[in-house]
Amino acid sequence: MNTIRGAEAVMKSLVAEKVDTIFGYPGGAIMPIYDALYDFKDEVRHILVRHEQGAIHAAQGFARTSGKVGVCFATSGPGATNLITGLADAMIDSTPVVCITGQVASHLLGTDAFQETDVIGISMPVTKWNIQVTRAEDIADAIAKAFYIAASGRPGPVLIDITKDAQFGMVDFQYTPCQSIRSYRPHPVMNDTQIQEAVALLNSAQKPYLLVGQGIVLAEAQAELKAFVEKSGIPVASTLLGLGALPVDHPQYVGYLGMHGNYAPNILTNECDVLLAIGMRFDDRVTGDVNRYAKQAKVIHIDIDAAELNKIIPATVAIHADAKDALSALTQQIEENSHGKWLQQFKELRQVEEQEVIQEAVHPTSEALKMAEVVQLLSDKTNGDAIVVTDVGQHQMIASRYYEYKGYRNNITSGGLGTMGFALPAAIGAKLGNPSKTVVAIIGDGGFQMTIQELGTILQAKVDVKILILNNNFLGMVRQWQQLFFDRRDSFTEIVNPDFVQIAKGYAIEATKITEREALSGALDAFLNSKEAYLLEVVVEQEDNVFPMIETGASVADIRLN
Amino acid sequence: MVQVYNISIFTENHIGILNRITIIFTRRHMNIESITASESELKGIYRYTIVVKTTESQVKKVVGQIERQVDVLKAFYHDDSQVVYQEIALYKIPTDTFMNGGSETIVRAHSARILSMEVGFTIIEKTGQPEELQKLFDELEPFGVLEFVRSGRVAISKPMKTLESYLAEM
Question: Which of A175, B38, B75, B145 ranks highest by number of CB atoms within 10 Å?
């Protein structure tokens, strides 16, 4: 038998799961694991972050671009609690992450020991599964289950809390990957009768409409989606996290859904006769008022998570299935069609949006630069193929509207939780998970300062991340709401910023600031052509608003153009 | 329509699973009327009976979110007409009033049992539905009830499918 310490068992288990990158921060209760990590330096790359929130967002970015499970280490107490925002983000955005936290020795549990916190209790609502391990012999099984649970079914974050005595304890190590858990059924058995019902509805529909979400990407069903879309002729719209599931330049792609989405896909939601939703969960930012959402339509909802079916929008046919399986089955049975007239309706409304919103946004008559023209030019220069990591707020909505996502897993953002501070660390993870791609983090001046310390990680780990700060000196989205709904009372949304260029230079990151339109193209070229990390600050119009917009409580059909 | 629902949950015997379940009610601001837990007919599988007052649309979503938990094998909900349910209550009364005051007749009339009789106090047990347990309490009260405790509800559904058959399907 192979008797080793629990801490070494952690490392060997991770290696058995083919983990090659860990984001983490050491501390007292996880020191035995860090000591074991020292012997695995050649097999496993450890990225020392500057704050544990940075570790988990980086692990998320890594997971989202690579399709692998992201891994992070943190110590007990504050180290563990600093992970919570990221866990919540990964939970709501279905990102597979395994967090390993150190814990005080088991005889101290519950005694308010130094750096003791009930991380199991705290993380329970924001993890798919979590477990505390107090014996070295339980480590391998816990890790095996963790990876299986995190990656299977609807993915999500898992936390393993390992007491210090379990890390020091001796164990006869043996690793068996987990392949099933009695109480957990991640692979739904698709009901063929329901598929036939769905096909019958779709074949007889005059105005069928397909909404896709991140479930397509998570199921790696892009090819199946394209085949289905092209055979059926159905127009396709995407949620925020579904952007790129179908390339944005596909002729049947009609736009982005929701509060700041495109005009046609929102309005025509209330005109379709059959609404097919795959791998999306009818978030309130997508539906607006649910009582006035697609009431005229028969709804077919396909999701891998049964709890999402009939949760928000009642479905005529609710199919509990993996998106890839369902799309393959639908494509086999669907009749070929083109729906040209119906697609034309989307195009006509697109023209309205072009004239009323897009034209001015990307070719502004204003003196100040606008976010949309910056994103549009970035999109052109990267051919829609860069990995774009966005933070939260106006710039995020602008990026989602104007970046033409054509790449595979190239849209990384904090959707469900809306976590400011997500983009910078997530971009670090995204680059490490997909090193051959250009990774651009588009961040507002507010969100940048929430995790600005991760510039240190970029410096130390030499991560080639392009940081594009769209600086309007405001917490812009809140300011927009104050203008529209709170009588322009700009309560604490104006922000006094430091000199971002000087800060970047302090971290040995090349940086430029531009304020003029003439400088934009050249500055973006230098930014994109740089061989290492680069920060480009673009000063944009201070009080710009994102339109179109569905106001809170309004129907998707009441989307405003200005 | 708001009414009483009996939620039955079958889980693995893991630390923290009760917390994972109750969080789902807390998030929806839903009060738990009663909760009981014990090992089921299958060794190692625990059975929870949770009683809530809510609408069917809410209880359906809650049960879906409970069943989604990794360590939950199966969860069901039933209204009162679909289950047989009972609670148990214990009543502690002074022995002298019990002997002298006629409360013995009351205990017999309610088909309650005497569990223990000591010099100072007597403990009565009754199993039944909440109204029956309350009725006995009300009648004993004039004689002085030193302590009264009532359990949560345990419920078994009338439909015949067994947990084992669900497990076999998994």
Answer: B75
A145: containing domain: 3-172
Q: What is the least distance, in Å, from the CA of B113 to any CA of chain A?
A: 40
Distances (CA, A) of B59 to A128, A306, A478, B6, B7: 21, 15, 35, 9, 8
Same domain, A127 and A215: no
Task: Search chain B and give the residue with CA nearest A148.
Answer: B70
CA distances from A311 to A148, A185, A214, A403 (A): 26, 20, 17, 31
User: Model confidence over B21-45: pLDDT tens digits?
Assistant: 999 999 999 999 999 999 999 999 9
List the single residue in A128, A305, A311 with the smallest CB-CB distance to B70: A128
Q: To which residue do tokens 């983990």 refer?
A: A19
Of A164, A324, A370, A466, catalytic: A164
Distance CA B47, CA B31 (A): 20
pLDDT tens per residue, range A458-482: 999 999 999 999 999 999 999 999 9
A427/A79 Cα distance (integer angstroms): 21
Indicate yes or no: CB of B73 within 8 angstroms of CB of A132. no
Q: Which CATH architecture has domain B86-150?
A: 2-Layer Sandwich (3.30)
Q: Are residues A87 and A219 in the same domain?
A: no
Whether A75 and A11 map to the same domain: the answer is yes
Neighboring chain A residues of B13 at a CB cutoff of 8 Å: none
- A446 by Cβ neighbours in 10 Å (0-12 / 13-18 / 19+) ranks as buried
A chain contacts of residue B23, beta-carbon cutoff 8 Å: 124-125
The residues pairing with A387 across neighbouring beta strands, listed in sequence order, are: A439
Segments making up each domain of chain B, as ranges: 3-84+155-169, 86-150
Looking at the structure, do residues A153 and A35 belong to the same domain, yes or no?
Answer: yes
Pairing state between β A534-539 and A466-471: parallel
A115 is catalytic: yes
pLDDT tens-place string over residues A147-194: 999 999 999 999 999 999 999 999 999 999 999 999 999 999 999 999
Distance from the A196 Cα atom to the nearest Cα atom in chain B, whole angstroms: 23
